[in-house]
Sequence to fold (406 residues):
Amino acid sequence: MKKHIQLHFLFPRTIIRWIGSISCSMLLFLACTYGSAFGQTTVTGKVTDMTSGEALPGVNIIVHGTAIGTATSAEGMYTLNVPADADTLVFSYIGYVPQNVAIGGRTEINVRLQSQAISGQELVVTAFGVQRQKRSLGYSVSEVGSEDLSTVKQTNVVNSLAGRVPGLVITESTGGVGSGTRVIIRGNNSLTGNNQPLYVVDGVPVDNSGFGSAAGSGTGEYARNDYGTGISDINSDDIESISVLKGPNAAALYGSRASNGVVLITTKKGRANRGMGVSYSSNFTMENPMILPKYQNEYGQGTQGNTYTDLANLKNHGGSWGAKLDGSNQLYFNGETVPYAAQPNNVKDFFRTGGSMINTIALDGGTDQATVRFSYTNTQVSAIVPNSDLTKHHFNLRGFVNPDYS
Fold:
């Protein structure tokens, strides 16, 4: 037989009221917690480039661990409704280092993104300084960075593009140091007109016609001088990158002058919010003739197998159609008689060991509002031909002010 025992507890009325009070408080706490968990906070701010201070449009801003996000406007501004329990915002942009920023209860978060090098040169500078992904373009673009230009410095920075850009033919002038260079992209387009590309430095077209053998007719004359071109005056240490736009489609925005292509040169800017920076670089090179023509050393100066017996003909005629070099005494340029013998190393001994010394010092810095960069470069060049020397002094000052700064 089973017995059922029933227990009855009697609570005083005060205890029942106390339990009811606790239940109401618990419900109120849960309601507040629920409302806090699903509440939102509005966060605003501006995203700029860390180096130049320029506003960055189209930057992706996402709440970490969620699909909640937005993008910056053309002025770099953004507004985002963030859940109250969110703790981190993720800022990402093509060509820049992604950045995670803690919210920390703030309602205004301004971010500066640092640019990064894109492997394989995926990001290139196109017309008017706009950066685009290389694979998204409908034309060919080649870009050369500052490191490639400064590894072995040239007195004419265009010469540094040799072998680095497909379809680019560079012909250096024989005028010696400081002379101009002829650049052709994908062959000649005209039989009589100019075939060289348009040069644009920081958005400004540069006249590269030159003076002397670099321009005009009669470029094959021996007595012409070559004073270089406009591009030969640019210092390679001041260049951030060079982009070569090939074909008429690439250069359409620059008009008919760019029908032969465009060489875009972007110079370096000052760095924002990094204090004053000082950099120094030095480059020294030496050169000698690698290959010399082969000369015959059997017959000397003269004509029809005879040597010149008068000084006037000797000075005015340089043909080597004289008698065989037998070592006999013959008339020389100074009016004396010397042995009529071969000088197998006379051309080799004429050239000397050339050298160039290029030193650059640069100062840069700035704030969110403005950046500045100043550089000085001293160039000392001695060519392999005696009495062919070059001395140049480069002074460069570039400042940038952010008009959107507030």
